[in-house]
Amino acid sequence: METIFEIRCGQAAYPVLFGSDAGEALARVWRPAWRQGIIIADSHTAALFSDRIAIAIGAMVRCCIQLQFKAGERSKTRTTKAKLEDAMLAARGDRDACIVAVGGGVVLDMAGFVAATYMRGIAHINVPTTLLAQVDAAIGGKTGVNTGAGKNLIGAFHQPQAVIVDPSTLRTLPPSEIRSGLAEMVKHAVVADAGLFRGLEVWAATGERIPATDLISRSIMIKARTVAEDERDGGMRQILNFGHTAGHAIEKATSHRVRHGDAVAAGMMVEAAVAHRFAGFPETALSRLRQLLATLGLPIRPQCAFDDALGSMLLDKKRTGDEIRCALPSEIGAVRRDGDGWTVAVPPELMRSCWEDLRR
Ligand SMILES: NC(=O)c1ccc[n+]([C@@H]2O[C@H](COP(=O)([O-])OP(=O)(O)OC[C@H]3O[C@@H](n4cnc5c(N)ncnc54)[C@H](O)[C@@H]3O)[C@@H](O)[C@H]2O)c1
Asked: Would you list the DSSP string of 14-62?
């Protein structure tokens, strides 16, 4: 495994390791002070990976326990967190424990939040096994759970000690989950890396199922660089919201029947069309984005009417004043800056016109 990025966030610094031997990488980053290993996975990733992780850390710890919860977003709750914590207390988990989170974004968000609060904070390592988690959720230290009032409303910033990415874990991932990670990779390319965008265009034309490893690592670097600049999500990290103002609104308006990646893809088309009219995003860039999303099997039309989505965009947490705020690209690989900020106030009528044009 190769260290492709060393993230420095305030006091914390941690490596992102990328390659094909997670066991060797764990041995490299494991600290002698971590006397206990706690592997947290979901019901799918436990069966696929937990034993291998346990073997890798077995010789370095005095004991190792494996915990799991039912796979799926519905498990990302305070109840699941309490069950994991109770199991750790029963196993006499102490401050010298290190959690190894093995799974997609749900496992990483959950295990990271457990690590943030257990004994007032213990170490954790992220081993992401979905494309979305590898290029996005594993990096940046955001952890948390959902409640009836909304997604990710209870949580903490808690940086991992290391992120270990093995793209070969993606071989067992269902196509719908690959698509959801691809949407975030396209987003990274549009906001920060024209070369990655070209690479994705070339790769998409091959019809292969899993993106080339250099495209995955390039996408990881964009997330890593962005969070290193803006640990607490107050500034530059907002560029990663491209496609998400409209995307989140589509998810809510359809009661989450439209999956996150599909909503973000359509959201990117809406916001790119707005950027075309409002931020100088060229027509050629807009049509390349449409073509790339379509080739990847991602939606290019909003899945609900603008009026059904408007309410939640006006309630969006990025909103200030009465406008809808979006991160808008000025070209492929760059976002338009608005004074000190990275989001732009978009008049609702302009977005309505772009949105409904795409639905025609
Ligand atoms: N913390 C962050 O910065 C951040 C960023 C983006 C998303 N998220 C969160 O991530 C979550 C979504 O993550 P996700 O898309 O990875 O979903 P997920 O964690 O639910 O994983 C999707 C499915 O794939 C299965 N799976 C995981 N790895 C597998 C593998 N290698 N082979 C076969 N099956 C596998 C899982 O068990 C699950 O059924 C959301 O809760 C979202 O809020 C967090």
From this structure: EEEEESS-HHHHHHHH--TT--EEEEEEEHHHIIIIIHHHHHHHHTTSS
